[in-house]
Amino acid sequence: MAVADSLQSRARARPRLVTAAVSVVGYALVFGAFGGVLPLPDLSRETVILLGDAIAAVNSVALVTILVGVYYIRNGEVQKHRAAMLTAFGLIMAFLALYILKVGGGFEKEIVAEGIVWGAYIIMLAVHILLSAVSVPVVVHAVVLGLTHSPAELRETIHARVGRIAVAAWSLSLFLGLVTYVMLNHVYGWVPR
Q: pTM for this structure?
C-alpha cells in the first residue's frame, strides 16, 4: 500500500510528467508495431480480420461508456462519472493491445470504393487517425488528474477543461473509426493491400 501511495503522491505532484511518460510509451508501442520493432506473432488473415471486428466492438462500448460518463458528470454523479471514464480508459488500453497485435501480425485492407465515397472515407480515416494521436496526452492527463485528486480538489485543477477536450476528441475519433470500419467491412468491401 505504501508503494501505491508513493506513486500516487509523485503522480499528483507531477501530473504533466506522468502524462508525458505514459503518452510516450503508448506512441512507442504503436510506432514499434508499425516499424516491425516489437516482437509480435505472425497471425493468420482470419485472426487479423477477427481482431478488426474485436477492435470495433471494444471501441463501440468505449464510445457509449464515454457518453454515459458525460451524462453522469452533467448530473452531478461524480463517482459514476469516474467509474465510466475509467472503464472507457480501460477499454482503450484493451484497444491498444488488440491494435498492436493487428498491425504487427497481418495485412492491410483497402476499401473498394471510388470517387466521392473514397474521398469521404479517406478524410474520415485521416481525421480519425489524427484525433487518435492528438487525444492521447489529453485523455491521459485527464485520467492522471482524476486518479490523483479528490473531487473537491479537481475543481482547482484543469481537469474539467482538459476532460471536455478529451471527450470531444476521443468521441469523434471513435465515432469516425466506427464509421470507416462499417464502410470498409460491411458496406463497400475491401481488398488486401
A: 0.92
